[in-house]
Amino acid sequence: MNYDANIKRIREIMVRLRMLETANNIMFCDQWHAGPEAGFDQTTNVEMYLSELSQQLVENDEVKQLVADFADFDKSQYKSDIDRGMVRFLSDRYKNATLIPLELGEELGRINNDGRKAWHECKKNNDFQSFKPYLQKQLEVQKRVAEAINPNESVFQVLVNCWDPDWRLDEIDKIFGEVKPEIVELLKKTESYRDSIDTSVIDCDVDRATKEKIVRKLMDYYGFNWNQGILYEEEHPSCVCAGPRDSRPSTNYSRNLFYTLLGAAHETGHGMYNYGSSQEVVDAGLWGGIDGSMHESQSKFYEDQVGRSLEFWTAFYPEIQKEVPKFREIPVETVVRALNKPNPGWSRMQADELTVPLHLILRYEMERDYFSGKLTIDDMEEAWNTRYKEYLGVTPKNASEGILQDVHWSTGFIGYFQGYALGLVYSCQYRNSILKAHPDAWKKLAKGDISDINSWLAEHIHSYGQTYTTRETIIKATGEDVNTKYYLEYLRGKFTKM
């Protein structure tokens, strides 16, 4: 084998493959945010064609041979980590292209398109019954995809590994088994002080233009590069990575001002990770962040470790006071306590930092139980409501507040929810490492200086793009594998008393 010639060819294929992905993501973004509904069918047809071109690019004898040449390579045999990352990336794409029939991939694309449209309509009309056929079809197609990828593995294990390849279900269950009881116990302890925290102080309805102005200031404060990103509005915010220097977060201005800001902080975290790859990584086609839990760790870091901290609000609160006169009379400490109050409720998107893992674990368990045969489509709404009562002490009033609140199950994000919860765990591990390297990082944050935090994340996470796997990246960045102790210590320190 000619190593250098093979790596050069793999790089060429990678770059072309990611170009097709860029075109597909731009169309997806247009469809999601701005495109007319009547045009969805045509854009879906084009997306399917682009997917066909991508499949042709990787499912051929040349790529088969390239993958085979490196199949038995040890890490030490690669000339660089980027070379190894390219081989791993292309090998994964080749595997999926050869295992998942093109027709099945197209069918999944169409049900995602149809499901997304149906979800918007059904959520608006509080109508889960009309959504059930779309959900049933989505889950059936996902099952066929999983069986095509690995018929010898459990369906849910395969689906989870589509987003988080590093994790076995028993490992995830172990982590959640460590986290969940601690959170439940902490939540009980917060009953002694919860009533003393007045959340009405953050009830604030300002006009859309003012919200957008403050959101943009927040993103400026975080260091978001507007030359590499654009901000959309969307009912269920998301962030699309359209290219190595083209990241497209969104927010929802219909929410309370502070939850709008936290949502924007979350998507800004995704956005900065998307465009943060080094030029060497971009040139190799490994740009953008690692899907699943690693990406969610970046968004949750900026939402929680930064966006819910007293230090951040000490610096940023004057911007709120400048635009909203009500807050000129309210101390920042009062607002931060209200923003962090443990407040069990039905909404994942507006959940506090302590209870949000329960929302996520609940969804993961629902998916796991469906694919293990413990739940059917007809059981799911009742199971959802029952578990909300058990885990959080609340029952959603209707389907829009309950099982229809998330867009994920309509658009193919099955086996994804554990990524949010794992991301919470990772984010506290990063915080620990940042404070080791920069003990004054949060003190500087209180003075409006986020540079130590941003530079650590850029150097140790963002710059590598998809060069490494999730757990390789975490070990490289923090010096150890995923460890729940940092997360649990953080929660105990924050919520034992407020």
**How would you spell out the order of helices and strands?**
HHHHHHHHHEEEHHHHHHHHHHHH
User: Mean of the pLDDT scores?
Assistant: 94
What gap, in angstroms, lies between the N and C termini? 63 Å
How many separate helices?
21
* Low-pLDDT segments: none
Biggest sheet: strand arrangement = 1-3-2
**Shape descriptor:** globular
Count of β-strands: 3
Supply the helix-strand structural class: mainly alpha
**Percentage of residues assigned to helices:** 55-70%
Notable features of this structure?
498 residues, mainly alpha, three-stranded mixed β-sheet, 21 helices, 63% helix
Offer a quick outline of the entry.
It contains 21 helices and three strands. The protein has 498 residues and is mainly alpha-helical.
Secondary structure elements and their pairing?
Blueprint: H1 3-33, H2 40-58, H3 61-69, H4 81-99, H5 102-124, H6 128-149, H7 155-163, H8 169-189, H9 208-222, E1 232-233, E2 239-243, E3 246-251, H10 257-274, H11 279-283, H12 293-306, H13 310-323, H14 332-340, H15 356-371, H16 377-392, H17 418-437, H18 441-445, H19 451-460, H20 470-478, H21 485-495
Parallel strand pairs: 1-3
Antiparallel strand pairs: 2-3
